[in-house]
Amino acid sequence: MDIHSASFVISNSDVEKCPNSKIPEYAFIGRSNVGKSSLINALTGRKKLAKTSGRPGKTQLINHFLINDNWHLVDLPGYGYARVSKKEKKTFQKFITDYFLNRKQLISAFVLVDSRHKPQEIDMEFMQWLGLQQIPFSIVFTKIDKLKPAVLDKNIENYVTELLKYWEELPPYFMTSSTQHLGTDKILEYIEQINQNL
Ligand code: GDP
């Protein structure tokens, strides 16, 4: 897929105020610093798209971008746990879970994980939650340029082994580097294929 247009639409923290259209959307989420803004900019070929909403607190907002006038790329806040009781029961930020539970236009999510790190509990929990809600998702391994090929292979192998403890079938996964523009074309192809079949 060639990107011929990419523009910021709206930011907000309320799923009810997200664009009221039938345009299919794909959401990008992960822990902060995972490389989400860089990936969105690499995908769209726009150096500063993921920051164009530019307001303080932007990272705590749901950001919609319109791509090629026919799909929305959604930049979700870096997730963390919200403490809900003294017992330290943990949950994900409510407006993020509300988004996933209520956003009918959402076709699929991309959960970003740093290829350098071993599987993190919060990412695993989040993927399991998506699975329970029957929300389709893929995994995007980021920053692969930072690893030697053998180490990268080992890390992915470990990740897959961990996933297979919980999942019978692996979700699709992509290996990316935003600085080297690796893997971004595969993600765009994947989105294009789904869009064509909608
Ligand atoms: P976000 O908080 O998830 O949006 O993460 P950013 O996109 O701001 O990236 C966090 C840091 O990782 C920044 O210093 C980026 O320059 C760096 N980074 C992001 N993607 C890559 C990548 O593919 N390769 C390398 N080497 N660094 C990256």
TrEMBL record:
Protein's name according to its UniProt entry: Probable GTP-binding protein EngB
One BP annotation, GO: division septum assembly
Job of this protein: Necessary for normal cell division and for the maintenance of normal septation.
Keyword Oxidoreductase: no
Domain of life: Bacteria
PANTHER family the record matches: ENGB-TYPE G DOMAIN-CONTAINING PROTEIN, MSS1/TRME-RELATED GTP-BINDING PROTEIN
Cofactor list: Mg(2+)
Entry's family note: Belongs to the TRAFAC class TrmE-Era-EngA-EngB-Septin-like GTPase superfamily. EngB GTPase family.
A Pfam family it matches: MMR_HSR1
Positions of the EngB-type G domain: 22-197
Keywords: Cell cycle, Cell division, GTP-binding, Magnesium, Metal-binding, Nucleotide-binding, Septation
Organism: Haloflavibacter putidus
HAMAP family referenced in this protein's UniProt entry, alphabetically: GTPase_EngB
Any one Gene Ontology molecular-function term assigned to this protein's record: metal ion binding
